[in-house]
Amino acid sequence: NSADRGGGVYCENSTPRFEGVEFKADTALSGRGGGIYVRTSQPEFKNVIVRENYVYPVGDDEEAYGGGIYSYKSDLIIDSLEIIDNSLGGAETKGGGSYLKNSLSAEDVSVLNHLIISDNSAVDGGGIYMIGAAPLINGSVISNNEVFDRGGAIYCLLSHPLITNTTVVDN
Fold first, then answer.
1. 42 contacts 15 by C-beta, under 8 angstroms
2. What is the rounded CA–CA span in Å between residue 113 and residue 164?
3. Strand runs (DSSP E) across 13-110, as ranges?
4. Which pLDDT score is estimated for 124?
5. Would you place residue 168 in the very low, low, confident or very high pLDDT band (cuts 50, 70, 90)?
């Protein structure tokens, strides 16, 4: 599948629930969300796989964000999610596995339990790139992600994640 944004699925102002779903080999043609694009939404993911998705760059700066998942002003609820082998094209790429932006709210916080984030690539934030975000990450493994600049596993900018019982290895 391919689309301008969210090659597999595009969610805006929504509360979808995905259970036992695989987003594979999807493509975003306009710089954001190879597998999944989420904007001002509260999606739930349970036993989901996001793999082998790709984002084409846009603009003069060749920007691309969120090879697997792009989330903007959204609160993700996750229980068992694999983000594997996603990538981005271009010179300015952020969040090979996932890109979380502006999800700081007093009422809602992204809760990410039992993640496997592996073998993703980007210039910054091979596994996760977050800006203005405060996710709770628990019981996860972030491994074998590759970057060309900063944050092999996780890149944090103006963010306040709480990471517990998580293994970060070989990034």
1. yes
2. 10
3. 17-19, 22-24, 27-32, 36-39, 44-51, 54-55, 63-65, 69-72, 77-84, 87-88, 92-94, 98-101
4. 98
5. very high
Report pLDDT digits (tens) over 94-105. 999 999 998 656
Q: For residues 46 and 158, what is the distance between their CA atoms, to the nearest angstrom?
A: 28
Question: How far apart (Å, rounded) are the C-alpha atoms in residues 127 and 58?
Answer: 21
What is the rounded distance in angstroms from the CA atom of residue 152 to the CA atom of residue 145? 6
pTM of the model: 0.96
Both tokens of residue 109? 């916080």
Integer CA distances (angstroms), 7 to 51, 64, 72, 90, 163, in order: 12, 13, 16, 17, 29
Q: In whole angstroms, what separates CA 27 from the centre of its chain?
A: 14
List for the chain the helix, strand, coil content (%; round to 5).
Answer: 0, 55, 45
